[in-house]
Design brief:
mainly alpha
Length: about 625
């Protein structure tokens, strides 16, 4: 039985948004809930294919009208949400204002997926504090909407004259997109995750549901129910599976995507689909998707993201604002207002972009806090502090980008090496200052997110290759001229892993009789320190205090006992965490500013000369 209203699609919409909602709010039964986005892609692909190809059949498809309908459907609610949270953040969380604007200008013109690809990965820890991270999927869809009708128009004559040949071409396009996703996963899962053409196969599999509807309609109702049941079992398994870590999308993604496409293609009006609550959730699904994530991020900043009652409070807020958005924004008539919608989109883009270029000191007494939260890691000061991209190898660089002349040893001065990941790199300028003023030659071997050992378990090839060269070629050749190696890294790992790493560096340098010092553990915060400081001093919100302070103290005490005199205890060294003009000692949750590292200068200098002399 075929009806005009698609209860199956309505049910899938509701299931998808519920899955994404509870996944983001960290309900353990929805650990794979992010596949709700993949199901949304399937639904969109089906609907767009149906609109375009049905227009071909009736010879009344108008591409400009197609774009107009998509603008009316997507833009108004998104733009209103962006402006709403922009005001909330400006007044309540100003340290995040510029950070938010960077996301706003990319989201307003639907290229946030590209922006996030170049800046952070979806599953990265830091990404969960991005208020507009979820707009990546809307950008992917919009880019698909722009190009998809143009591609199908190329094959319009083929579709009208030979549907089997068209289906073959359609499947080849799906295969191209799918294999592109698999290929790019080898080098960069973030690229496959964020890029529209490596995601297009999911939407086009939705398109196959339209192409196969007539064939599927011949199947008996009993068989349809059996297939639908099995398809839902697959989808629910992926939503509730205990582990979905690693690469996504991947080869297995085809299972829930194909299951959703199959359910749609069967077009069966199953009684289970008919539920008033499910229907209302489906109607609200777009607005729920828009509002739930920013409210979740707000709960993180306020330290209210772990307790069940807090989760339900922010979920309730999401639903309330979704209802308001649906009735006041989505249901409005915009047929004659498209140019104003587009103008609004461009205005938000330009204002957001321009404001990110203005020094926050112009409009706020805590301008330094705002600037540092947003700009510090991209600033010239950070570049000089770390020697970024020069002596500190970035994760995006290859080993060949590191110039070996930086490793040249001095024949007439003591040689001291700074070795480690970004937690070593952040001390580069401070240690260089100490050494240069005392006629000691400074050598820096630091790189992103990689412990300095042979065949390190880091995920970035360039840093791994650098450390492999350091241990297999550089030290064996130059060990007699090295007076001291100063090591620092992210010690916040499992005890077993930490011992394994330290034992390697200790054993290796002892073999060559090279003296070593370890820079100690420093504080870690649950959110970036400037925002933590602002919340603590403005609202008396501690945002869960230090990230498991007891855990950090245990790490520090373990390292002190395990390494003895080779360990510089920084955690118990008293410093000033905020200057009088609002320069913080940290710019994110665990990396020091130059202002921060300089305060540790006396203890580091003292220990260096105790070892060398």
């Amino acid at each position: 039985m075929i009806t005009n209203f698609r209860y199956d699609i309505s049910f899938l919409r509701a299931l998808s948004v519920i899955s994404v909602l509870f996944y983001h709010f960290n309900f353990s039964m929805f650990r794979g809930g992010f596949i709700g986005v993949d199901i949304f892609f399937v639904i969109s692909g089906y609907l767009m294919t149906k609109i375009i190809l049905s227009g071909f059949n009736s010879d009344n498809f108008n591409i400009l009208n197609f774009y107009k309908r998509r603008i009316i459907r997507i833009f108004p609610a998104l733009l209103f949400m962006i402006v709403f949270f922009l005001m909330i953040i400006f007044f309540l969380l100003p340290t995040q204002f510029l950070v938010y604007l960077r996301s706003a200008f990319s989201s307003s013109l639907f290229f946030s997926n590209i922006y996030y690809y170049f800046n952070n990965g979806y599953f990265d820890q830091s990404s969960q504090y991005n208020f507009l991270l979820h707009t990546w999927s809307l950008s992917v869809e919009w880019q698909f909407y722009l190009l998809y009708p143009l591609i199908l128009l190329i094959f319009k004559k083929t579709y009208l004259s030979n549907k089997y040949r068209f289906a073959l071409i359609f499947c080849l396009l799906i295969l191209f997109s799918f294999t592109s996703m698999l290929y790019h996963n080898i080098y960069s899962n973030s690229y496959s995750f964020y890029t529209f053409y490596t995601r297009a196969w999911e939407m086009m599999l939705g398109g196959t549901a339209f192409l196969s509807e007539k064939t599927m309609n011949k199947i008996s109702d009993k068989i349809k129910i059996l297939i639908i049941t099995l398809s839902f079992i697959v989808i629910i398994y992926f939503i509730c599976a205990k582990e979905h870590k690693g690469i996504w999308p991947n080869l297995l993604t085809v299972l829930p995507v194909m299951s959703a496409s199959t359910i749609i293609s069967l077009n069966h009006n199953w009684g289970i689909y008919r539920n008033k609550i499910i229907e209302k959730i489906a109607y609200l699904s777009y607005s729920i998707y828009l509002y739930h994530w920013p409210f979740y991020v707000m709960s993180l900043f306020l330290g209210l993201a772990t307790r069940l009652r807090h989760k339900f409070f922010f979920i309730l807020l999401s639903i309330i604002f979704s209802i308001i958005s649906y009735h006041c924004i989505e249901k409005n008539k915009y047929e004659n207002k498209v140019k104003y919608i587009l103008l609004g989109s461009f205005i938000i883009f330009f204002i957001s972009f321009i404001l990110t270029r203005i020094d926050a000191m112009v409009y706020s007494k805590i301008g330094n806090l705002i600037n540092i939260t947003d700009k510090y890691k991209y600033s010239n000061e950070a570049k000089e502090q770390y020697n970024l991209g020069i002596k500190h190898l970035l994760h995006t660089q290859e080993f060949e980008d590191y110039k070996k002349e930086y490793l040249t040893v001095s024949k007439d001065k003591p040689n001291v090496i700074l070795l480690g990941d970004s937690h070593a790199g952040m001390f580069a300028k401070t240690i260089n200052n100490i050494l240069e003023t005392n006629n000691i030659h400074y050598i820096q071997v630091t790189a992103d997110a990689t412990y300095p050992m042979l065949q390190s378990k880091g995920e970035f090839k360039g840093p791994i290759d650098l450390f492999n060269y350091f241990y297999t070629v550089y030290i064996p050749k130059n060990h007699e001229k090295i007076d001291l190696v100063i090591i620092s890294s992210n010690y916040s790992v499992s005890r077993k892993d930490l011992i394994e790493k330290i034992n390697f560096t200790n054993t290796y340098f002892n073999r060559y009789k090279i003296k070593i010092l370890y820079l100690g553990q420093t504080d870690i915060y649950p959110i970036d320190y400037p925002t933590y400081y602002y919340l603590k001093n403005t609202y008396s919100i501690y945002s869960e205090n230090l990230k498991d302070k007891e855990y950090l103290l245990n790490i520090n005490n373990f390292l002190k006992n395990y390494l003895g005199n080779n360990y510089i205890d920084l955690m118990n060294y008293e410093i000033k965490k905020m200057s009088s003009n609002y320069i913080p000692f940290m710019y994110d949750s665990n990396h020091l500013t130059y202002y921060g590292t300089e305060q540790y200068k006396p203890i580091i200098k003292k220990r260096i000369f105790e070892v060398i002399n």
